[in-house]
Amino acid sequence: MNKNSSNIMALTPNTSNKRETVCIFGTGDFGRALGHKMIQSGYPVVYGSRSTQISNLIPKDAEVLSHAEAAQKAAIIIIAIQRQHYNFLIPLAEILHGKVLVDISNNLKLNQYPESNAEYLAQLLPGSRVVKAFNTVSAWALQSGTLDASRQVFVCGDDVEAKQMVMNIVRALGLTPLDKGSLLAAQEIENYPLQLFPMWKFPIFLSLGLTAFFFFYCLALDVIYTYIYEKKNFSFFIAITIPNRVCPVMALILLALVYLPGIFAAIIQLYRGTKYRRFPDWLDKWMLCRKQLGLIALAFASLHVVFSLVSPMRAFVSWRTGKGIISQALNNKTEPLNNTNAWISDSYLALGILGFFLFVLLGITSLPSVSNNVNWREFRFVQSKLGYLALILCTAHTLVYGGKWFLSPSAYKWYLPNIYMLSLVVPCAVLVVKFVLIFPCVDRPLTQIRQGWERNPKHSE
Amino acid sequence: MNKNSSNIMALTPNTSNKRETVCIFGTGDFGRALGHKMIQSGYPVVYGSRSTQISNLIPKDAEVLSHAEAAQKAAIIIIAIQRQHYNFLIPLAEILHGKVLVDISNNLKLNQYPESNAEYLAQLLPGSRVVKAFNTVSAWALQSGTLDASRQVFVCGDDVEAKQMVMNIVRALGLTPLDKGSLLAAQEIENYPLQLFPMWKFPIFLSLGLTAFFFFYCLALDVIYTYIYEKKNFSFFIAITIPNRVCPVMALILLALVYLPGIFAAIIQLYRGTKYRRFPDWLDKWMLCRKQLGLIALAFASLHVVFSLVSPMRAFVSWRTGKGIISQALNNKTEPLNNTNAWISDSYLALGILGFFLFVLLGITSLPSVSNNVNWREFRFVQSKLGYLALILCTAHTLVYGGKWFLSPSAYKWYLPNIYMLSLVVPCAVLVVKFVLIFPCVDRPLTQIRQGWERNPKHSE
Amino acid sequence: MNKNSSNIMALTPNTSNKRETVCIFGTGDFGRALGHKMIQSGYPVVYGSRSTQISNLIPKDAEVLSHAEAAQKAAIIIIAIQRQHYNFLIPLAEILHGKVLVDISNNLKLNQYPESNAEYLAQLLPGSRVVKAFNTVSAWALQSGTLDASRQVFVCGDDVEAKQMVMNIVRALGLTPLDKGSLLAAQEIENYPLQLFPMWKFPIFLSLGLTAFFFFYCLALDVIYTYIYEKKNFSFFIAITIPNRVCPVMALILLALVYLPGIFAAIIQLYRGTKYRRFPDWLDKWMLCRKQLGLIALAFASLHVVFSLVSPMRAFVSWRTGKGIISQALNNKTEPLNNTNAWISDSYLALGILGFFLFVLLGITSLPSVSNNVNWREFRFVQSKLGYLALILCTAHTLVYGGKWFLSPSAYKWYLPNIYMLSLVVPCAVLVVKFVLIFPCVDRPLTQIRQGWERNPKHSE
């Protein structure tokens, strides 16, 4: 009680006398952890176990009985045993009739069985009222009270009253129940704790691969080439200079890759003349991870901003600045302000700032709580209109900054192009094709197709 | 099925055999898109159509029957036809009796009809159980699977069981149902997709107008005046220097405008001696868009921060710095550190940083998910106490930075004040009046009034 | 009506004729404010009052009757009176039988009474259907329409139908009802508006204390020492230099304090050989405020970043830079690039940037809407793996930056260590112990213990 009272978030009514007895089948780790927590919250707990001999591991205020006896004592029975052993419940069907059975099991793999564990349990015991709950809570977190992430407990079940009873227990334990509907949702709930950023895998591996490629490309051209041909040791470029070259390149390419699948989709639809045929699989997958690609692009862009902003604090930069000024002073002359240079430097900085600003705006609107508060029109406006504007600004930023490199022969060390040029290929292609697509003669049929019109109705048969 | 399985977020149980037949009235774009999606998710779909002749556009696994025949085959009927044609359902009233009718319609204008479409449908067919759903989902998004924004499906209806059935379908399609209560909520749900940032319109137009004004004001004073009278071409100021003058001015003015209506409200209440009379309309509207004004102010402040931070990277700034150092070197002397300058420069930077920090904190607490997690006292503490502190710090930042301009005649080009001075008018006025309002002799009656006391009870009759 | 229609978010159906009469017991401030709002939304309102003489304060469209008469006119009765006066309702028990009673009361202290007000009301009038609602809404906000924070109305009650009726009213007033379950939740709902950042108190006071200590420590060593022994006035260091020394120290120490309790917990579990015994109270409390500690650490880190980035704009820094360059120019020589310095400067900047980047990522995932969207495995991955990586990077950043100070005697002014050294104690200790804990010979038994194994089962008896 002591511990719980320190947790102001999990205030539980102290009217323990009201609580109904809860039965737990199974004395494994999770069964014990849940029992401890329930006893703390004032529930009388009775364990159903094969050996009714009292184990030391079981909370000492709990009773241990045979399964049948324990089940008779409570209206709610928590099934803390594994799916493989559900069969042993069949002989108890009569006792369990009408009782609320809480399925808390998890699987080891996604979609391991054709039906969810909870649905399987409901099939085995058609007279019982099965509720799925607690499977997303970790036993360790329950025990230690460190429930930062997983206060949410997904609950589903076909019987509304049974669900209500389970949700009341969830609340009494200081957790937040979330009703996911009928038992059909059990499969989704069971898959939930098995996922580790499923939508992020492809974007992250793609980014890592590209980053490694560009890093070594820059290393070769900027450090190794300089060392071989100019005998200068610029190895410290590895820390900031090269990352600050790779980051903007990655940000621009990934941002372009966010908009590329939309371009492909439009072309495919124009070519097919219908929207009622499925896109190729790779395009579908690509479209589904656009948000993740965009957020990784934003991460690279943010790193680029910070890497750039620290540059005046770098020893190398202050040395280079000082050298320039000293050589002017020693030559006894002051160079006048080069107006073109001032224009170029100011405008690429301004373009970059505005592009980054829009980029951050896109990132904020993709926060779940913000995107749930905007409707479809608003989301499309931000993600499509402002997104393209960000892409245009960032491409322009790169063009203005790196434009001078295109014609300079020194940019082609070992006959390889500078990475600025490589970074511009995808975004420029996207922008050019998009520019073509918004011409009325292309846009009109595309809009018609997206509203359901078909060029060759035969095709969809 | 292939496509769906690639979308791990939208896992649907594969137990298709359980699904109940769904009937769709209407073979328009949305009806077809929904039918496709339902067939993919394992629902047998039957279309009710005037011409039972099978159209090529209809998903090939779906049956097409007359309205009456189709309705008899299913317990749930999706009404994918427009409100104007709802009349034709009246002859079917007997067949539709007890059936769940899902109204998915939208209007073209906000509050187009006195009652919502769903309520109208319920009036036409009093024996049916009408549920509003799916109107916020775009057909195109449903078709293409790109449901980033709109996984949420608002559902409302008077019959709890009917609503539950519809919410189960929503879940099976991989979407998230959100119960909005009884059919009374239908009007709100129908208005929802028609809005494009309704609360943002006024703040955005105001900001655009003021920004344009200040931009041209600065352009005139900083570029044109300098060009005419000093023959210097500083046209590149357009890219960074002028935006970085306009942004802080806009941020400060908009932040003050967030707190100004509260000041007006207090004065009006003090004058009237009661809180039970309505504020003027313009004040009500103003108060309702304070959050938006604050967020736009934060956007300007962020731009100001980044514009300022890049300044050492500008060609113009490094040229100016170099020139200063070279002239000292050529004169063979080193200027000693000016302690006053060091104090002024450090303190306005520190004030600006702290003000911006509080400003960002205010922005974070206004994120929906954060503000839903704080209670009224906490929200008031942050938005009012910390908000005023941010305003004080930002005003002080501007005063310390721009203080020297007030007395310098060079700041009055063409007899116009520098925009620093203009920017200080509103915030200083707000702070002065607020300072008066917290005096006990003013604060006490105000608190009483806000707790329900009235000076002249006659007034409220 | 005029005012309401300006608030597009709170669109209420204008079909006023349908609304059922609502009765309000009590004519205090909140009762009146709620009555006003309900009349605006089209509800006929009747007040129950001891003196049926019409008061001027009551909305003029409302009827005022005796309690018994008023109660008979409506199915829903809002109890806007204080808990102490609930007794007077007992004689009305028969009239109130079957009616929906809405308890809107709040207490003055947390857990003031053994049971919540709503449960007390339900005990007094067992025949009525009690629903808790509206207690988190402020009367002033209701009156003025400025409901930015508290659109959410927590509703709980044992009768589902009664709850539904109240939630419909909540919606009609333009607010968002949130069903918190049965009446058991009333205590939590009543405590809610009384809390002012309860979990933040300890972390904030700790931070303020430490900040003050480090500030004066730096002030003594950097300003006073320099003034006494070197006769230099560096008082302006108070504005930026010293804050920028305190902020990173605080960020690093607080970040280490986030991970320290986990280390203690592991050691205690290893020592005890079981996880089934409660941690000491201080450790429990500490673990529960780790998120808050982490967010304050992030705030300090962000301030450190901005304070560092503005440094090139400081008058002192440009003076110092200029002096260095001029002295080189006057000596007619250019120092060559010091490669070691370049490496050190670039690597501590890069380490700091990456550490801060991960730190921000941790902050974003702790936003409620983001952490609700990740499961337990994902949350642990981010908060534990990435968190430790951030701690390692930030510690390395400090070590590389401040490493030179350890051996320099000038760093020990007044025989006191520089604060860089102080700041490294806790993080280094945490990292060293954590490093020991991940050795297999230590990690294996710890993992077993966390999965429920016990070394001395006797202990738990």
TrEMBL record, chains A, B, C:
A biological-process GO annotation: iron ion transport
Segments passing through the bilayer: 204-229, 249-271, 292-310, 347-365, 386-407, 419-442
Annotated ranges, domain Ferric oxidoreductase: 249-394
Cofactor: FAD; heme b
Presence of keyword Zinc: no
Keywords attached to this entry: Copper, Endosome, FAD, Flavoprotein, Ion transport, Iron, Iron transport, Membrane, Metal-binding, Oxidoreductase, Transmembrane, Transmembrane helix, Transport
Residue ranges of every copy of the Pyrroline-5-carboxylate reductase catalytic N-terminal domain listed in the record: 21-107
Gene3D superfamilies, sorted: NAD(P)-binding Rossmann-like Domain
Topological type in the membrane: Multi-pass membrane protein
GO terms for cellular component: endosome membrane; plasma membrane
Source organism, top-level taxon: Eukaryota
Subcellular location: Endosome membrane
Recorded GO MF terms: cupric reductase (NADH) activity; ferric-chelate reductase (NADPH) activity; metal ion binding
Catalytic activity: 2 Fe(2+) + NADP(+) + H(+) = 2 Fe(3+) + NADPH; 2 Cu(+) + NADP(+) + H(+) = 2 Cu(2+) + NADPH
UniProt record similarity statement: Belongs to the STEAP family.
Protein name: STEA4 Metalloreductase
Source taxonomy: Eukaryota, Metazoa, Chordata, Craniata, Vertebrata
Gene: Steap4
